[in-house]
Write a sequence for this structure.
């Protein structure tokens, strides 16, 4: 005890990976609850670089049990490649440290092809998906024709399901989208084989988590993407197809909501977005270039450059409310160094009216103009700082203002990419 949910408060890429890595040291169980290999983070441990898309980075810690919950969409090819890469570097992966829910939905090759072909067909209105088949897989889940991990490992059920769904997929691919169809035999053999390789990892994740909670273990819920990419609460339709918000942690794993004790919101000290969609504080000037360059803002999954802009407190306050945040972790604060002034968007102005929450329609969102508050910047390098009191006065002032506007305490501050480049004000596992 306690259990912590780590959620992104913006549009993903807030630097959750580093914070999750820090907290994992004190967790016995780490669990993914939504999304799939549209997520990605890079971890540098000593001289070695690891890239994770599906498996929690907790796999690098001895004695940590990593779980993939039912809310995730899992591409078995990607998972097996990730397992192989880890094993080739001497990290053992097996049922003792990785378990997958039997109820997890499987991303099939037709999901990937549909994702890419649909995006092409959308033309200028494209969402900018990662092309990993995420949306089409969640569509099948909701349409009750999805293939789950328990089906993948059963050759007969897999055969029956593939034969059932393929005619419709092929019709869409061929007749509607002008893409190549699939033959059942192209899919069956490799997927049956992958199912057999993954069989030993299947488990009832809900039971495992409930037992861990009963035994007083620390559980860390690792959110992917961010609050404003949430299918219900985000900037629809420029969203992903799952629920990154904290409530998704319960649905996506099978542990009741009363067991989610702390909700830590990860806030990048500025804002980024990959793909299309409204972004009121986007900077298309030299500030945007500074943030992109200093923050190395290129996607770890697709390599696309990220759009950059000032910190948006309207976005953050929505995240506080939607997730019930109990603490904040501010990341990449060092990237703001040398910018002067530093700006925070405190409200929007739409058609001459000030508003403090995000409108539900795209048309209104696109008309939102940021109302900025300007604060003095700082010149000093922050990367060596380990205590709040040692930060420059202007940096402290900026953080206090963010905290005051958000109404939630800042618990962790990241001042550089390395594990130790961190100021811990309050460790959420200790209170
Ligand atoms: P999808 O999740 O691939 O369907 O993509 C839908 C939208 O979510 C696109 O704008 C993607 O760029 C965005 N997205 C998905 N995963 C991530 C992520 O991990 N970080 C940032 N954006 C993401």
């Amino acid at each position: 005890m306690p259990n912590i949910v780590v959620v992104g408060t913006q549009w993903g890429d807030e630097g959750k990976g580093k914070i999750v890595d820090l907290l994992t040291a004190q967790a016995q169980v780490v669990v993914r609850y939504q999304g799939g290999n549209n997520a990605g983070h890079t971890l540098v441990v000593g001289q070695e670089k690891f890239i994770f898309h599906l498996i929690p980075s907790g796999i690098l810690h001895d004695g940590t049990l990593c779980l993939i919950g039912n809310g995730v969409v899992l591409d078995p090819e990607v998972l097996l490649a990730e397992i192989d890469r880890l094993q080739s570097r001497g990290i053992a992966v097996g049922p003792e440290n990785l378990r997958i829910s039997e109820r997890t939905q499987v991303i099939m090759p037709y999901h990937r092809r549909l994702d890419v072909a649909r995006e092409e067909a959308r033309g200028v209105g494209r969402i900018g998906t990662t092309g990993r088949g995420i949306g089409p897989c969640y569509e099948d889940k909701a349409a009750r024709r999805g293939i789950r991990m328990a089906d993948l490992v059963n050759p007969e059920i897999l055969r029956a399901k593939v034969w059932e769904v393929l005619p419709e997929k092929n019709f869409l691919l061929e007749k509607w989208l002008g893409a190549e169809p699939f033959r059942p035999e192209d899919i069956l053999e490799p997927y049956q084989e992958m199912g057999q390789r993954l069989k030993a990892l299947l488990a009832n994740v809900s039971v495992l988590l409930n037992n861990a909670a009963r035994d007083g273990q620390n559980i860390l819920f690792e959110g992917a993407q961010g609050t404003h990419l949430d299918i219900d609460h985000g900037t629809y339709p420029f969203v992903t197809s799952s629920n990154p918000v904290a409530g998704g942690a319960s649905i996506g794993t099978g542990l009741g909501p009363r067991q989610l004790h702390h909700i830590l919101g990860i806030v990048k000290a500025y804002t980024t977005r990959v793909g299309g969609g409204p972004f009121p504080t986007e900077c298309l000037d030299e500030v945007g270039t500074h943030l992109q360059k200093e923050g190395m803002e290129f996607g770890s999954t697709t390599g696309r450059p990220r759009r950059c802009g000032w910190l948006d407190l309207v976005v953050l306050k929505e995240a506080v409310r939607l997730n019930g945040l109990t603490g904040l972790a501010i990341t990449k604060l060092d990237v703001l160094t040398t910018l002067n002034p530093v700006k925070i968007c405190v409200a929007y102005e739409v058609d001459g009216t000030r508003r403090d929450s995000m409108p539900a329609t795209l048309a209104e969102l696109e008309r939102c103009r940021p109302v900025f508050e300007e604060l003095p910047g700082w010149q000093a390098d922050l990367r060596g700082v380990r205590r709040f009191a040692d930060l420059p006065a202007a940096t402290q002032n900026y953080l206090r203002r963010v905290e005051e506007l958000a109404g939630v305490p800042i618990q962790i501050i990241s001042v550089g990419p390395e594990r130790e480049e961190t100021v811990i004000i309050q460790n959420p596992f200790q209170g």
The chain has a mean pLDDT of 96. The pocket of inosinic acid is lined by residues 11-13, 38-39, 127-130, 132, 134-135, 224-225, 229, 238, 240-241, 274-275 (CB under 6 Å).
